[in-house]
Write a structure and sequence with these properties.
By secondary structure, the chain is α+β, with helices and mostly antiparallel strands. The chain has helices at residues 2-19, 101-107, 149-162, 176-181, and strands at 41-48, 57-64, 69-73, 79-84, 88-99, 121-133, 138-146, 166-168, 171-173. Strand 2 (57-64) and strand 3 (69-73) form a beta hairpin. 15% of the residues are buried.
Length: 182
């Protein structure tokens, strides 16, 4: 008798937990974007990713709205390469915390406590652009190092709007349907 009562209670308890109806997830609200529009040109260091350009180089990135592209100019202010807005697949920020050059030098000085200088970190911020290169029919990722977070956020926001990309978190991407139209 006790067993049947315990068994019936257990079956009842499990059936309520198994077949209970889940409540729908609350819709998330996007946080408002308070990012200033990027200037038409800004300093950037090309870090790699473009076919035919393997050397890192400091220069300037410029928005060419007439031709709907972003253009990288080298130190000599000559156009090195460009990426059309409609070739963008994903653009996003990336940060990397590294020991500064000063920290590396000071920590090797043979003085007590100099090793603590290795704790001096600096944050490097990168603009990452994944794109489809129609000239060689491949997808690639190009990286640019930018000077600070404010510039990085404004550039990503501006590029996302100019390229008509969809926002997800800190990144912008081209949806599958929009990619098929290109």
């Amino acid at each position: 008798m006790k067993r049947s009562i315990v068994l019936t209670g257990l079956v009842g308890f499990l059936s309520v937990n198994i077949f209970g109806q889940m409540s729908p997830a609350e819709p998330t609200t996007a946080r408002p974007v308070n990012v200033a529009r990027a200037t038409p040109s800004f300093e950037a260091k090309y870090e790699g990713g473009m076919f035919g350009y393997s050397n890192k180089e400091s220069g300037t990135l410029r928005f060419d709205d007439v031709n709907k592209r972003v253009v990288f100019y080298g130190k000599d202010q000559k156009e090195k390469f460009s990426i059309a807005y409609n070739a963008f697949l994903v653009i996003y920020p990336q940060s990397k915390s590294v020991t500064s050059t000063t920290g590396n030098v000071v920590r090797h000085i043979p003085l007590p406590g100099a090793g603590l200088a290795g704790l001096l970190k600096e944050k490097r911020r990168y603009l990452i652009i994944q794109y489809e290169d129609p000239d060689v029919d491949v997808r690639a990722i190009v990286n640019f190092k930018l000077s600070n977070k404010k510039i990085l956020e404004s550039v990503i926001q501006t590029l996302g709007q100019k390229a008509d990309l969809t926002k997800r978190g800190d990144a912008f991407y081209r949806t599958g349907a929009a990619r098929d139209e290109i």
